[in-house]
UniProtKB/TrEMBL annotation:
Keywords: Antibiotic resistance, Cell membrane, Cell shape, Cell wall biogenesis/degradation, Hydrolase, Membrane, Peptidoglycan synthesis, Transmembrane, Transmembrane helix. It is found in: Cell membrane. Catalyzes the dephosphorylation of undecaprenyl diphosphate (UPP). Confers resistance to bacitracin. It is a multi-pass membrane protein. GO terms for cellular component: plasma membrane. Its EC number is 3.6.1.27. This is Undecaprenyl-diphosphatase. The gene is uppP. Bacitracin is thought to be involved in the inhibition of peptidoglycan synthesis by sequestering undecaprenyl diphosphate, thereby reducing the pool of lipid carrier available. Belongs to the UppP family. One of its GO terms (molecular function) is undecaprenyl-diphosphatase activity.
Length: 283
């Protein structure tokens, strides 16, 4: 019994660490997958691979909740005026654009498991980290005055094209926020505008992905232990708390800085991933 308690305690510590990594890397354009791969080389959960596949995605629910909490007033389409419930057309318009940006993801979502099975590896992750790192540097070096500085100025065409860029995140190591931010910058959106729109896009995409993973885990027939439930809950809660800080940081950061730092960071991380792969192969 005491041994089981120690095992549960250490699994919870691992879940806290993973929640911290998820909360930071999900919103910064530096690839949560790349960081997860590195962390998982050190942190080995005492859980089935089916559970871990589900855990890596469902832990994002905590991060989503952080967006909802921080931007509630901008996301909730109803309000009160003189004691009466009113509808906010501007918010509905924003949600319609979010839906438009989500449509391309729905088209390629059936490929998600296949991509994870065949491309969830060091080489792909490192390549995408470095590629998008270079893209950030190139895009920022050619930046001109943005034509879109407010969310309401985003057209449906802009939203759909950002959604197409978001599809590229199906490749491990790309970073969903990284792909959408690069796409938004190329379309002429300001840094703050594209960052905020990226947060909103995460709600339907990540919620849908989490639901699918839970359903697939449920029908797989693999049982879930009490420790695994605790690990999942702790990971989500920690991801939520850390995401609150990460989102605030990024929104403040982009008001005064560009994305070059993240581009350099991605290139360095990609090199580290390749080094880890080489060391692992030689071990």
């Amino acid at each position: 019994m005491l041994q089981e308690g120690f095992i549960t305690f250490f699994e919870i510590i691992k879940a806290i660490l993973m929640g911290i990594v998820e909360g930071i890397t999900e919103w910064l354009p530096i690839s949560s997958t790349g960081h997860m791969i590195l962390v998982e080389q050190v942190v080995k959960f005492n859980a089935s691979e089916e559970f871990m596949s589900m855990f890596r995605v469902v832990i994002q629910l905590g991060a989503i909740l952080a967006v909802v909490v921080l931007f509630w007033n901008k996301l909730w389409p109803f309000g009160l005026r003189q004691g009466k419930v009113i509808s906010k057309p501007s918010v509905w318009n924003l949600w319609f654009k979010v839906v438009a940006a989500t449509l391309p993801v729905l088209v390629i979502s059936p490929l998600d498991d296949w991509m994870e099975e065949h491309f969830y590896n060091y080489i792909t992750v490192a390549a995408m980290l470095i590629l998008y790192g270079v893209l950030f540097l190139v895009v920022e070096n050619r930046r001109t005055t943005p034509r879109v500085t407010k969310l309401e100025q985003i057209s449906y065409r802009d939203a759909l094209l950002i959604g197409v860029w978001q599809c590229l995140a199906i490749i491990p190591g790309t970073s969903r926020s990284g792909a959408t931010i690069v796409g938004g910058l190329l379309l002429g959106l300001s840094r703050a505008c594209v960052a905020e729109f990226t947060f909103y896009l995460a709600i339907p995409v990540m919620a849908g992905a989490s639901l699918l993973k839970v359903i697939k885990f449920a029908v797989s027939g693999v049982s879930i232990t009490g420790t695994e439930i605790a690990v999942l809950l702790v990971g989500c809660v920690v991801a939520f708390v850390v995401s609150l800080a990460a989102i605030r940081f990024l929104m403040d950061y982009v008001k005064r800085h560009d994305f070059k730092f993240f581009g350099i960071y991605r290139i360095v991380l990609g090199a580290i991933v390749l080094a880890v792969a080489a060391i692992t192969a030689l071990a």
